[in-house]
Write a structure and sequence with these properties.
The complex is a heterodimer of chains A (415) and B (320).
Chain A (H helix, E strand, L loop, with lengths): L1 H17 L8 E4 L11 E7 L2 E8 L7 H5 L4 H9 L6 H13 L8 H29 L3 H22 L8 E2 L2 E2 L8 H24 L1 H7 L7 H6 L5 H5 L6 H4 L20 H24 L17 E9 L2 E9 L7 E5 L1 H13 L7 H7 L4 H4 L4 E3 L4 E3 L3 H12 L1 H4 L1
Antiparallel strand pairs in A: 1-2, 2-3, 4-5, 6-7, 7-8, 9-10
Chain B lengths: L1 H8 L4 H23 L14 H11 L10 H18 L17 H22 L3 H32 L4 H6 L11 H14 L11 H4 L9 H26 L13 H26 L5 H27 L1
Helix pairs in contact in B: 2-10, 2-11, 3-10, 4-5, 4-10, 5-6, 6-8, 6-12, 8-10, 8-12, 10-11
Classes of the chains: A alpha+beta (415), B mainly alpha (320).
Chain lengths: 415, 320
């Protein structure tokens, strides 16, 4: 990874040396505030006419200091805070966090809680994938697809609301269990609606395979090879679309993924079209998983009460969020608050691939390709320093940053 | 004299065209909304029919901002020019009878010139706005224009070639026994596709692709200029479908029984044809995704141009 980073820097400097002035006319700013971005992020697109030569990202506009804030909050409070890392894959974040905390405890997660976690996680995946397909339609100028898909997504949100009480931030996962039991009388209705969703996903798959204007916009656009994706450490549907079978649910089953029968969806040749196919196919798989889980729901309690103090130790855990592998690291010093929490979100892992996918395409493809990785900049933004002029990079602890701030504003006090 | 002036200014001239444009905007929004499973405009007037007018009036009140580096003269006066172009051309299209408000023997050529002129005005406007989005938009606009212009002009000229006149009025009168669409269905299709490109509607809304270059060439406009530019686009749509109706569907012609006043029936026929064509445009624009400029250009040169040429040969053979 470090080598790649060094090479990237090297590469960028060579490009900059070859084209001494990226003149102002050649740079189209994309963001931080742009209609195609739902979150602030800045990409300098270096273009020649319509063609993109280079992309210079600048991340960090929505850095919120969550990891630092976690150190001052109780273990339980952190669940709800990390849930708010992302508005779309909120349950994946809370599951990953509670899983890494559960690793420090010596309880067995109740079977029923495992199944409920799987059901909600898969509902979230359906909702996220449908949202993505709709947004892709929107960004390819296909408003009708956007409206239709989002209309169907409402059904999923309704189910989530019936289970968890909320549409977006489910607040359902808790340490060693889930907070609420499944409303049994509503289950037959859920199954009917999920069957309808699977049907609709197949229908949309038909649309994306046959609608000519959409095919022109997606087929062969943002093409990237499996080797490049592996080299750039990409995760999630992006690598599966390139034919690499990598899925945390399969490789390291958590929740009830080991008990529920399902097949991983892969495809050949990652471009935007196969990404759409893979995601819609995953919607069908997820719907079937949920139906199976609802029909085979084991009886029993849904949570175990745990003491507010977590034993000393460190643990890492990962889940397959809708966008890819989501990684949490937790370190406890045996107190009521964590000593350190580290989050690695799939968007950060996929961004280098997205930049690679953009090069050589036209300006018109930028929104479509950037959407291709299903970016969530709010999840991704964090602080590190790269000095291109001196080719060095470093990280600062909070204390060093504080010192730097003091030096910057009060030079006489910093000495 | 007074009658001509009234006809030019009110009915079937400018006021009528603008009103039709506003109704078309409402119809477009409503059609799109229904196809997408939404409701569309609802509150202003019955079923929201006054919403476009309300939007227009609201924009008139807004502050107008001129970018610091823009060419002030062009920036202020060109929107008016762009607005007048389709409005003036509309006078050459017969509405309330086989005769138009204004007509001369070569007015079809004048219309072709006006179509080119309005695109030229936008391109200049876009370039003088001096922002990176509008610069890209003006490049796309010109590239798209040089691609669709030739099929469009061939489609416009072929009825004239069949009838042997370059006056819209003559072309309409000659269709009293047989509509041109029976001889040249392809021309009408080519005309409508090129019209989509001229009006920047999907799949050819490339110069104003909102997810790529904000609002395209409209990005820097605000207040009055924006209001009139938006209205001008609607008026262009009215003019476009009216021209299609006149050239291929016999304009206001149709069977007229002696009991009913001919003027009313002619207007009715005209409106039916125009609304039908507009509905086709709206449905197509809702059902398709946006192409990239590369694909659009190759589509116009490789598919539309041969089609229009083939139709031209058919016309030559029919004419003998």
């Amino acid at each position: 990874m470090h080598d790649t980073f060094d090479k990237t820097i090297q590469n960028r400097r060579e490009v900059a040396a070859g084209l001494p002035e990226y003149s102002v006319e050649n740079i189209v700013p994309f963001g931080p505030i742009h209609p195609a971005l739902k979150e602030p992020e800045y990409f300098k697109l270096v273009i020649e006419g319509e063609r993109i030569v280079d992309v210079i990202p600048r991340i960090g506009y929505v850095h919120r200091g969550l990891e630092k804030a976690a150190e001052q909050r109780l273990w339980i409070q952190n669940i709800y805070m990390f849930e708010r890392t992302c508005g779309i894959c909120s349950f994946a974040h809370s599951t990953a966090y509670v899983q890494s905390v559960e690793g420090l405890l010596l309880y067995n997660l109740p079977e029923r809680a495992k199944y409920i976690r799987l059901i909600v996680a898969e509902l979230e995946r359906i909702h996220s994938h449908l949202l993505w397909v709709g947004l892709l339609g929107h960004w390819a100028g296909f408003e009708t697809l956007f409206m239709w898909v989002w209309n169907d997504r409402e059904i999923v949100l309704d189910i989530v609301e019936a289970i968890a009480g909320n549409r977006v931030h489910k607040s359902l996962a808790t340490i060693e269990g889930v907070k609420r039991d499944l409303p049994e009388p509503l289950v037959p209705g859920f199954i009917d609606r999920l069957k309808y969703i699977a049907e609709r996903a197949q229908y949309y798959k038909g649309i994306i395979d046959t609608e000519t204007t959409l095919l022109v916009r997606t087929k062969g656009v943002g093409k990237i090879s499996g080797e490049t994706l592996q080299r750039l450490c990409a995760v999630g549907p992006l690598v599966r679309a390139a034919g690499i079978p990598r899925d945390v649910r399969h490789d390291d089953p958590y929740s009830a993924y080991g008990d529920v029968p399902w097949d991983m969806v892969t495809s050949r040749g990652a471009d935007i079209h196969t990404l759409m196919q893979v995601r819609l196919e995953e919607v069908v798989v997820s719907a079937n998983m949920i139906i199976y889980a609802l029909e085979h729901l084991p009886p029993g309690p849904v949570k175990i009460r745990v003491p507010p103090v977590i034993p000393k130790g460190e643990n890492a855990s990962h889940v397959e969020a809708p966008r890819g592998e989501l990684f949490y690291f937790v370190k406890s010093s045996g107190g009521r608050t964590p000593e350190r929490v580290k989050v690695r979100t799939p968007t950060l892992a996929n961004l280098p691939s997205a930049l690679e996918m953009l090069k050589g395409h036209t300006l018109a493809d930028v929104p479509v390709v950037l959407t291709g990785i299903d970016p969530c900049f709010g999840c991704m933004d964090r602080l590190s320093f790269i000095d291109l002029d001196h080719n060095t990079k470093w990280r600062w602890s909070g204390e060093q940053l504080r010192q730097y701030g003091i030096r910057h504003y009060f030079p006489e006090r910093g000495k | 004299m007074i009658t001509t002036i009234l006809e030019a200014l009110i009915f079937p001239g400018m006021a009528f065209t603008i009103a039709l444009g506003l109704i078309f905007e409402w119809l477009e929004r409503k059609t799109m909304a229904r196809m997408m499973g939404r409701v569309g405009p609802l509150l202003a007037g019955p079923a929201g029919v006054l919403q476009p007018l309300a939007d227009f009036l609201k924009l008139l009140y807004k502050e107008e901002i001129v970018p610091a580096f823009a060419d002030k003269t062009v920036f202020k006066f060109a929107p008016g020019l762009f607005f007048m172009a389709p409005l003036v051309s509309m006078l050459f299209v017969p509405v309330i009878g086989p005769t138009a408000v204004a007509s001369f023997s070569l007015d079809l050529l004048f219309i072709v010139f006006i179509l080119a002129f309005s695109t030229f005005v936008i391109a200049v406007l876009s370039y003088t706005s001096a922002s990176s989005f509008t610069t890209v938009a003006s490049g796309r606009l010109v590239l798209q224009y040089v691609s669709y212009e030739i099929p469009l002009v061939i489609a416009i000229i072929s009825p004239g070639l069949l009838i042997g006149s370059l006056s819209v009025q003559d072309i309409v009168t000659a269709q009293s026994s047989r509509w041109n669409i029976l001889v040249m269905p392809l021309s009408l299709a080519v005309f409508l596709v090129a019209l989509l490109a001229e009006l920047e509607k999907p799949p050819f809304d490339i110069p104003s692709a909102k997810t790529e270059i904000v609002a395209g060439w409209l990005t820097e406009f605000s207040g009055r200029s924006l209001a009139f530019l938006k209205l001008a686009k609607e008026v262009s749509l009215v003019f476009g479908v009216s021209l299609a109706a006149a050239l291929f569907l016999g304009g206001p012609l149709g069977p007229v029984p002696a009991i009913v006043p001919a003027g009313i029936l002619y207007t009715l026929y005209f409106l039916i044809k125009v609304f039908g064509l507009a509905l086709v445009v709206f449905i197509v624009r809702t059902a398709l995704a946006r192409l990239t400029i590369v694909d659009a250009t190759s589509f116009f040169w490789k598919i539309l141009l041969p089609l229009s040429l083939a139709q031209l040969f058919v016309v030559l053979i029919v004419r003998g």
